[in-house]
Design goal:
Blueprint (H helix, E strand, L loop, with lengths): L1 E14 L2 E14 L14 H8 L7 E6 L2 E2 L4 H7 L15 H11 L4 H14 L15 H13 L5
């Protein structure tokens, strides 16, 4: 089974100088269990493509099916099955690590006990043990990136 199937994905923006084709006809297939890297020079459309695949930006044209859910017809189904860690991260610097993880888990519908279990497991796997009561803003750069990864995995995306 393919986890990601993309055909002809395109995104065009209107700019003062005319249309800008940020993404032109991307075709991509990723099988279940396969790991891929999304590489390219600045301005190649990587971020725009990822924003489309995570339902944050509507494609101009093309189709995408993520974990069996159509990007346009079932964006909620897509979001429930993916974990996305953006380049800039999204954790609140004034909140504790534990509270950020609990909030994310609860937003995805995990019970408090499921959330605690996942948070404990991820803290151990990602080297966040002992940091649960620290403010996100006090973490080192590496610790913050590991927290971002934990936030993307806490709901066990497919």
């Amino acid at each position: 089974m393919n986890m990601i199937e993309v055909r002809g994905l395109t995104r065009t923006f209107q700019a003062p100088q005319g249309e800008v084709n940020a993404v032109r006809g991307v075709d991509l297939t990723v099988a279940a269990g396969e790991s891929v890297g999304f590489l390219g020079p600045n301005g190649a459309g990587k971020t725009t493509t990822m924003r489309m695949l995570t339902t944050l930006l509507r494609p101009t044209s093309g189709t995408a099916v993520i974990a069996g859910h159509d990007l346009l017809d079932d964006p909620v189904g897509v979001r429930r099955r993916i974990g996305y860690v953006a380049q800039g991260g999204g954790a609140n610097p004034a909140e504790t690590v534990a509270n950020e993880l609990m909030l994310q888990a609860r937003l995805y519908g995990l019970s408090k006990s499921e959330a605690r279990s996942r948070i404990t497991a991820l803290a151990g796997q990602l080297g966040l043990d002992g940091l649960e009561n620290r403010l996100v803003g006090s973490l080192s750069g590496g610790q913050r990136r590991r927290l971002d990864i934990a936030l993307g995995l806490v709901h066990q995306p497919r």
